[in-house]
Specification:
By secondary structure, chain A is α+β, with helices and mostly antiparallel strands. Chain A has helices at 60-64, 69-76, 84-99, 105-133, 137-158, 180-202, 206-212, 220-226, 231-235, 242-245, 266-290, 315-326, 367-372, 375-379, 384-394, 398-402; strands at residues 19-24, 27-28, 33-34, 36-42, 45-52, 167-168, 171-172, 258-260, 334-342, 345-353, 359-365. Chain A has one domain: Cytochrome-c3 Hydrogenase, chain B. The chains are: A alpha+beta, B alpha+beta. Strand 8 (258-260) of chain A pairs parallel with strand 1 of chain B.
């Protein structure tokens, strides 16, 4: 890549400089979480990077083996704490495929709306914090202003701003309240204008251009070798998007474009994610337009809690309710891997059932973890300041990396 | 339905848009942008002044919550008889993913009834330092005895004070959290 600022070891201007090993993190604002980077520096040049992970290991995957299926849902959404709806969809979708449960169309649309709102939310957190690392402080306020509106929408519909446990196996736990559609539509129409304002501030800003253009370049082939997916891969020019490639929820019926970059540097990564926010807002609008009436959760008493109104009238419903809450439903032995396009790439969930009411194994393929492996390729032989820019543009969420 | 990443059928089914690259940094253009683009950015920032502040003065003014907001739990009594709705069935404890609810049930004595059912909760404790506010207890309760209230100010100096007993959960909260009105 001609644009990359890289100085090979032999041609370094001052060969007498000693190699110095520096710890960046684990508690460092620029590492976006508790990530420790052991960096070998030769002056200002990075010669080697060793990311050390595990500081927020929570053992959630192991805890899931001890919980019945519906109790796993609030657990898994706490792994990658910025994209909780995606984790719920990955887990619920996997279990639905295991027990062969079809979810009603309204639930599919509602799930898509919340997933795309969550994608915008996740990208806003990334844009705000990364621009802050690069010195653009007002971006943080603007991004968190819009993020707060999304969190308000989540609170209105689900009762909680984060970790909502809104998706359940079979659909969503309750219907959206009156007034949600109008509020959500207003937000989706406002969002492209807001994105235009971010672009006004950053797109042609000289400091931002100097910091991002030509830094952290990794070729598409190398990214594919490392298993990197999501906006990082798309910024390198590969239009791979699971929303188009796999058939899940209502994505086949929606009309959206896939933004791709050309060079694969930090500037392309920024542009791709910002363009994705506009596409997501358009998806939300399309889903609101096409939102069908009907049930919001499947009507299968074996797996889904009976409606609350029936508890006081029907003894059978009460028995189902007690059975589902205390023991949960049993899932026939089998295993499934279900992957969706998260905001950071392919988010997959593997569930192994052994016939009991608890999963025998729950494993997540978290995109942050896989993408972090490409960090060495981005940072080595560049400047230490570019390493910070690359790490921000990589967008790792350490809760997801360590799980 | 699934695709091979490089297959023609996948590439035909998608609409790809290449993002713009923006100007090359440095040079004469860079010198101009250091002033011109910074001023243009300032114009964007200044134009936001008319939108007014988005923040509220928190401790003086509380953030209103939506009706579905899940805050601190409440236990309920029947309004007419004054009897507790909870019958000590422990379904909430069974549903809790964080295992933070402890219920010990006891038989009602005729003449000195505590709850409307045969049994009542002699001990009902919620460890709020473990609670994840998922609201599964509220969903599980068949008698609407426990609901999630709207209070979110629960910080305390001692962990022991965060174990809420039945009396604390039954009592009316001193200060009410404002609710958002319909149009907000």
């Amino acid at each position: 890549m001609t644009e990359q600022i890289a100085v090979p070891f032999e041609q370094a201007p001052d060969r007498d400089t000693e190699i110095m090993t520096v710890n960046v993190g684990p508690h460092h604002p620029a590492t976006h979480g508790v990530l420790r980077l052991v960096v070998d520096l030769e002056g200002e040049l990075v010669r080697e990077v060793r990311p050390v992970i595990g500081y927020v290991h929570t053992g959630i995957e192991k805890s899931c083996e001890d919980k019945s299926y519906w109790k796993v849902i609030p657990f898994v959404e706490r792994m990658d704490y910025v994209s909780y709806f995606f984790q719920m969809e990955a887990f619920c979708g996997a279990v639905e495929r295991l027990i062969d449960l079809e979810i009603p169309p309204r639930a599919k649309y509602l799930r898509t709306i919340f997933l795309e709102l969550n994608r915008i939310h996740s990208h806003l957190v990334w844009l705000g914090t990364t621009a802050l690392d690069l010195g653009a402080i007002s971006m943080l306020w603007y991004c968190f202003r819009e993020r707060d509106k999304i969190l308000d929408l989540f609170e209105m519909a689900t009762g909680q701003r984060m970790h909502t446990r809104y998706f359940q196996v079979g659909g969503v736990i309750e219907d959206i309240p009156v007034g949600f559609e109008a509020k959500c539509r207003k937000f989706a129409e406002e969002m492209p204008i807001r994105v235009g304002q971010y672009e006004d501030l950053l797109d042609r800003n000289e400091v931002f251009l100097q910091r991002t253009k030509g830094t952290g370049v990794v070729s598409r082939e190398r990214l594919l070798e490392l298993g990197v997916t999501g906006p990082l891969l798309r910024a390198a020019g590969d239009p791979w998007d699971l929303r188009k490639a796999f058939d899940y929820l209502v994505y086949p019926e929606l009309d959206f474009k896939i933004p791709v970059g050309t060079v694969g540097d930090n500037y392309d990564r920024y542009r791709v994610r910002v363009a994705e926010m506009v596409e997501s807002a358009s998806i939300v609008r399309q889903c609101l337009d096409a939102l069908p009436e009907g049930p919001y959760i499947a009507d299968d008493r074996k797996y889904v809690l009976p409606p609350r109104s029936e508890l006081s009238t029907s003894m059978e419903s009460l028995i189902h309710h007690f059975k589902l809450v205390t023991e949960g439903y049993r899932v026939a032995p089998g295993e499934v891997y279900y992957s969706i396009e998260g905001p950071r790439g392919e988010l997959g969930c593997f569930v192994l059932a052994d016939g009991s009411a608890k999963p025998a194994r729950v494993h997540f393929r978290d995109p942050s973890f896989v993408n972090l492996q490409s960090f060495r390729d981005m940072a080595v032989d560049g400047y230490v300041a570019d390493m910070i820019a690359s790490l921000g543009m990589l967008d790792p969420i350490l809760g997801g990396v360590d799980r | 339905m699934s695709f091979d990443p490089k297959s023609a059928s996948y590439l035909d089914s998608i609409e790809v848009v290449e993002v713009q690259r923006g100007p090359k940094p440095g040079g004469v253009g860079g010198a101009y942008r250091a002033f011109g683009e910074t001023l243009r950015g300032l114009k964007t920032t200044m134009a936001r002044l008319i939108e007014g502040p988005m923040t509220i003065e928190y401790p003086e003014e509380k953030t209103p919550v939506y009706p579905r907001f899940r805050g601190r739990h409440k236990l309920h009594k029947f309004e007419d008889t004054g009897l507790e709705k909870c019958v000590g069935c422990s379904l909430c404890a069974a549903a809790c993913p964080a295992d933070c609810i402890r219920v010990v049930a006891a038989e009602n004595i005729p003449g000195d009834r505590v709850s409307a059912g045969e049994r009542y909760a002699a001990v009902y404790e919620i460890n709020l330092s473990r609670c994840i506010f998922c609201g599964y207890c509220e969903i599980a309760c068949p008698f609407d005895a426990i609901t999630m209230g709207h209070d979110y100010e629960m910080a305390d100096y001692d962990r022991r004070d965060l174990i809420f007993t039945k009396e604390m959960l039954l009592a009316e909260p001193v200060e009410r959290t404002p609710l958002k009105s319909e149009g907000e």
